[in-house]
Design a protein that fits this description.
This protein has 477 residues and is an alpha/beta fold. It has a domain at 55-216 and 440-471: Nucleotidyltransferase, domain 5 (2-Layer Sandwich). 39% of the residues lie in helices and 18% in strands. It has helices at residues 9-19, 26-45, 111-128, 173-183, 200-209, 263-266, 272-279, 288-293, 298-311, 332-339, 348-357, 364-395, 408-412, 416-427, 442-458, and strands spanning 55-56, 70-76, 80-87, 96-101, 136-142, 146-150, 153-156, 192-198, 215-221, 225-232, 248-252, 400-406, 433-438, 462-465, 468-471. The strands form four sheets. The protein has a six-stranded mixed sheet, with helices on both faces. It has a five-stranded mixed sheet with strand order 4-3-2-5-8, sandwiched between helices. A two-stranded antiparallel ribbon has the order 6-7. Helix 9 (298-311) packs antiparallel against helix 12, helix 10 packs across helix 12 (364-395) and helix 12 crosses helix 14 (416-427). It starts with 8 loop residues before the first helix and ends in a 6-residue tail after the last strand. It binds alpha-D-glucopyranose. The site of alpha-D-glucopyranose has 18 residues, from helix 5 and strand 10.
Length: 477
């Protein structure tokens, strides 16, 4: 029989002490729910002064599954930009899409250059797929906070997730895109009807609601985090219009900003590592809840925590691996890898990862401490998402709720989804029920569905061009 590995219990106890601020008691989670509900209420009254904007999306009609036609969808919200062609005429028809990597420098240039780049991508795609002669409706998933004045009039409130292009905040994003498209002479812009601008949470909700009408929440835990839900018009103080049917609208909470007014820190939930990560972003003091939860930041949080453990001589005998000092050296997919390990598999994935990226000199105790620190950061993130979802479920009158979800963290992390689900079970009223439904490419399909639903209401059935009559969505030969 092999000897049991030597474990230094004192080091483990000290690391436990240092990292236990990431463990949130049920009581703390409930206090967070209470605060979040207050912030929801403030946002529903007036978004100017509120921290959580609770943005009206103008998406009011859920899909009925009968949406038909061929649509273009754009998806901008992370490091990639996608153009997608979706055919809703055929059930489960494969989507044709093309991914374009957004060069780092474009994330912080003059906005016009970003939209020119997007226009170029659209042109490349439509040329590749011989769409230049189609009149086609387009839904744009733009996953940043936008105040909307209608389904396709909006104003960007602020950039998030590392974007910081000048000249876009306060502007109408659809107009900016149209201007860039117009500049490209070879592109016959008249044929692309931008009919809807949506957030990825709305897309996620819509793509699932297309199959399951019980869906009432759209959740994203990916590069950023956010949720939307279906609200009753008479509960929205700031609703600008009449209470016509359907008496509901999708609200984009923009919950990533929870805590930007200090309420989360006041509850003692933010750690010094959260503050370090926040200080090193392009938007310090903003999106504080998102920075405790989402893929853009989780790896950084763990990296900073591991550095402190080294500095306090609780890890690697006090020797900080050089690469660990580099920002971005510990991406969130490493967090997932480590969480997929356990003592029973002898921390194989963690060993491989550290051998490759940081150091080959570690002890069994080091591996346990890394595992504990990593797990505390990711489990807290899942607990915070459970707080968000539970607050929404408690906020709505529905007894039965379906959460449509998407995003790399909740999809790819080995336990995140289960942790969120367990957390919600614990936090909501026992009489309420919920289930979670994975959205299949909500950002793409959702935008097409919203475009289709809006066309269902008011699309011009035909267009006349060169004295010929064409039905929308059909090829013009
Ligand atoms: C950020 C954006 C939000 C988006 C979320 C998920 O929080 O502000 O609009 O929904 O990321 O992508």
């Amino acid at each position: 029989m092999k000897d049991k590995p030597q474990i230094d219990d004192k080091l483990i106890a000290a690391a436990n002490e240092l990292t236990k601020c990431f463990v949130l008691s049920d009581d703390k989670l409930r206090q967070l729910m209470e605060k979040l509900e207050q912030e929801f209420q403030l946002g529903l009254c007036n978004e100017e002064s509120a921290t959580l904007k609770m943005l009206i999306t103008y998406v009011r009609h859920l899909p009925n599954g009968k949406e038909r036609g061929q649509y273009l969808a754009l998806d901008l919200g992370g490091t990639n930009f996608r153009v997608i062609l979706i055919n809703l005429n055929i059930a489960n028809a494969p989507m044709v899409s093309q991914k374009f990597v957004i060069p780092d420098e474009l994330m912080a240039v003059d906005g016009e250059r970003l939209f020119d780049f997007i226009a170029d991508c659209i042109i490349e795609f439509t040329n590749n797929h011989k769409l230049e002669t189609i009149r086609i409706a387009l839904g744009f998933t733009f996953s940043f906070p936008c105040v909307q004045y209608g389904l396709c009039q909006s104003k960007l409130v602020r950039w998030t997730k590392g974007f910081n292009c000048s000249g876009v905040v306060g502007k109408d994003v659809v107009k900016l895109l149209k201007n860039s498209l117009k500049k490209k002479t070879q592109f016959n812009n008249a044929f692309v009807d931008i009919v809807a601008l949506i957030n990825d949470t709305t897309g996620t909700l819509m793509s699932c609601a297309h199959k399951n009408p019980n869906c009432n929440i759209g959740l994203i835990v990916g590069t950023g985090t956010n949720a939307c839900y279906i609200e009753q018009l008479d509960r929205i103080d700031k609703w600008p219009s009449n209470y016509s049917d359907p008496k509901t609208v999708v609200i984009n909470t923009e919950w990533g900003a929870f805590g930007d007014n200090g309420v989360v820190d006041k509850l003692g939930v933010m750690t010094k590592w959260d503050k370090l990560v926040d200080a090193d972003t392009v938007n310090p003091g903003r999106q504080l809840y998102e920075k405790m939860v989402s893929g853009m930041y989780l790896g950084e949080l763990v990296r900073r925590l591991l550095i402190t453990l080294c500095e306090q001589k609780l890890l690697f005998n006090g020797q900080t691996p050089e690469n660990l000092l580099k920002k971005g050296s510990f991406p969130t997919k490493s967090v997932s890898k480590i969480d997929s390990d356990s003592e029973s598999n002898k921390f194989q994935a963690t060993r491989r990862l550290f051998d490759r990226d940081f150091t080959k000199t570690y002890t069994e105790t080091d591996l346990r401490i890394i595992h504990m620190a990593n797990n505390r950061v990711s489990k807290r993130a899942a607990d915070l998402v459970a707080v968000g979802c539970s607050t929404l479920i408690e906020h709505m009158a529905n007894q039965s709720n379906t959460i449509a979800y998407d995003g790399s963290v909740i999809k790819l992390h080995p336990h995140f989804h289960q942790w969120v689900s367990d957390g919600i079970c614990k936090l909501i009223d026992k009489k309420k029920r919920f289930e979670m439904m994975l959205s299949e490419d909500g950002s793409g399909r959702g935008a097409a569905i919203v475009a289709a639903v809006s066309y269902r209401e008011k699309r011009p059935r035909i267009i006349i061009r060169d004295r010929k009559v064409y039905e929308i969505g059909t090829y013009i030969h």
